[in-house]
């Protein structure tokens, strides 16, 4: 007996569906990419599970996804023999959005379709993209290792609710049946479907099969020349390369393939900014393909957010979000790591304490830093784009990764008095290059905002002397600087710290003047000290201010005022 239940989509799903149908309409063919991508993921998951229990293959171990269509019924059908879903999984995966922070995400939508479609793309719409072209979607699925009677059917018109019932399903895996909307006839076409799959899914590692096409018969000069006879039921052929992209040689992979592969593994809709593909043999044996996204993910600051690489061992998918291979300050990196040194039965626990992991982690970290260094050198504009998206995260680097501190420091960008702009475009190397002969330190000021930094009274003497000062105004900067004391052998010095010694930069003449002033103002300073009492640690005469009469500074060894504010905010 069919046990049928009606369920409502969660509010987020309904909202997402509505938005998606409108905003992704101009790019509707991506539904096929998303569904093929899911079938490939399902194959990966089954292979992994079958490592422990090969009976899950049920004598059907050639994993693939088949795409066909039925002109009369106006259906496009995808059928995979991957891991399938149980009833509970169907309800969980196809009725809710299993991503933390979804509410916040929807809060950000503006109602402006162009802007929202960008956001939606980042969010990754996956399965629900089926409703861009279909007014009804049926999913029939059976999880690997379950009985034929434990099949599940899910049906929805994408409007608020869906129905789930029990069915018999002989083959393991998932069929997705799209009932096309009236105006979507173009997808009921062999050539059309083939070309979309070739465009978006050539890199998919399982075969994507369609019915074999018969060559057209030539009817002579008057006949319907070149007309394709419809697909032949019964005979399937793979229409993609069906090898894992990262195992292929670099020269044979086009940029488009790299781009599409990125979208498959990252669930991002936009092309990546940059990638680095490396095969390493010898002491370590692995392949890595690491991507830097063009845009920060919508949930980059969400602590529960999954991140890390997709881990494969000897071509077999092991896990998503293997965060052991990327430090947290590079959590935006997406990609694949395929190791030949790890055992196939590796678990997160084992990964935690094997030498192989730490070696791979430092190798991958180096790769990313080098990729960024090259980008900064060869394409400053592109790097600037990267910095705007991920600079804040990269600034966590020196604190987290002492070993690569110097390399990270080269990648940092700040505002400075030289450019006189809020934009963070100045690297320490630029600063050092502009330094005068007699200057041996890098000066910076940090504040709550750019305006506060740029108008800090301590800058007056530096301006007068023509010395550049780095302007820091991000929340994280104090934290960063407390872990980065120098660059290229030059000490980083705050202009607002106690007895700032401008060293060689103070010339003899001013020294004499200063001494004279010290004696003249000695009694005034004493009176000020008495008047302020415990409120201050010390009162000193300063030679650093030009237009401002006085200012508050912190002692050389004390926390800066900015850091104190941070600590207070953190409840310390
Ligand atoms: P994502 O792929 O980013 O997880 P999707 O919306 O594409 O998001 O899919 C949601 C979930 O539904 C998947 O994570 C998976 O658990 C399940 N799913 C979708 N398609 C299939 C399939 N063909 N076989 C098995 N599970 C699937
Ligand atoms: Mg998906």
Description:
Helices cover about 35% and strands about 20% of the residues. By secondary structure, the protein is α+β, with helices and mostly antiparallel strands. The strands form 3 sheets. The protein has a 9-stranded mixed beta sheet with strand order 1-6-5-4-7-3-2-8-9. A 5-stranded mixed beta sheet has the order 10-11-14-12-13, sandwiched between helices. α1 (about 10-25) crosses α5 (about 115-125), α10 packs across α11 (about 380-395) and α10 (about 355-380) packs parallel to α13 (about 405-410). Bound molecules: adenosine-5'-diphosphate and magnesium ion. Magnesium ion (MG) binds near residues 34, 37 and 38.
Concise summary:
This protein is an alpha+beta fold. 35% of the residues lie in helices and 19% in strands. The longest helix is centred in the last third of the chain and has 25 residues.
Question: What descriptors fit this protein?
Answer:
single chain, 572 residues, alpha+beta, 5-stranded mixed beta sheet, 19 helices, elongated, binds magnesium ion, Chaperone protein HtpG, Hsp90_N, HATPase_C_sf, ATP-binding, ATP-dependent protein folding chaperone
Ligand inventory reads: adenosine-5'-diphosphate, magnesium ion
Quaternary form = single chain
The end-to-end span amounts to: 63 Å
- Described by the principal axes of the CA atoms, the overall outline is elongated
Largest beta sheet, briefly?
9 strands, mixed
The average pLDDT value, as a whole number, equals 88
| Count of alpha and pi helical runs | 19
Helix content: 25-40%
**Rg calculated over all Cα atoms:** 31 Å
Strand content is 15-25%
Instruction: Give the low-pLDDT segments.
Output: none
Q: How many β-strands, per DSSP?
A: 19
What would you call the structural class? alpha+beta
Subunit structure: Homodimer.
Domain Histidine kinase/HSP90-like ATPase: 27-184
Keywords: ATP-binding, Chaperone, Cytoplasm, Nucleotide-binding, Stress response
Biased composition (Basic and acidic residues): 212-228
